[in-house]
Design a protein that fits this description.
The chain has helices at residues 5-14, 24-28, 39-54, 76-81, 88-93; strands at 20-21, 33-37, 70-75, 96-98. The chain is of the alpha/beta class. The radius of gyration is 17 Å and the shape is elongated.
């Protein structure tokens, strides 16, 4: 779905669907909001795991890793287009607001 984010955002906009996405790139592309891990942090974790496996670690012995950094991005331009009013309390919790 990440590779088709622009198409998904356009489809949601065409049908006036207030959609929430996993990655900030979708909100930057015009989606209403996103909440999730930063994609580069996820790729960084994949690199660390790959490096351990390439150095001989058994994948069954590696711990399960969960993200600890999440970000909330709001696109006010899209909210206005959809006729939505974002409550001030929600705006205050956003890590980034796109205007």
């Amino acid at each position: 779905m990440f590779s088709r984010r622009d198409q998904l955002v356009a489809l949601a906009a065409r049908h006036a669907v207030p959609a929430i996405y996993q990655f900030r790139e979708s909100a930057v592309s015009g989606g209403l909001m996103s909440y999730g891990t930063h994609i580069t942090d996820s790729y960084h974790q994949v690199g660390i795991y790959s490096g351990r496996i390439l150095r001989g670690a058994k994948s069954a012995d590696l711990p399960v890793v969960q993200s600890t950094k999440f970000e909330f991005v709001l696109n006010l331009t899209t909210a206005k287009t959809l006729g939505l009013t974002i409550p001030p309390a929600l705006l205050a919790t956003a890590d980034e607001v796109i205007e």
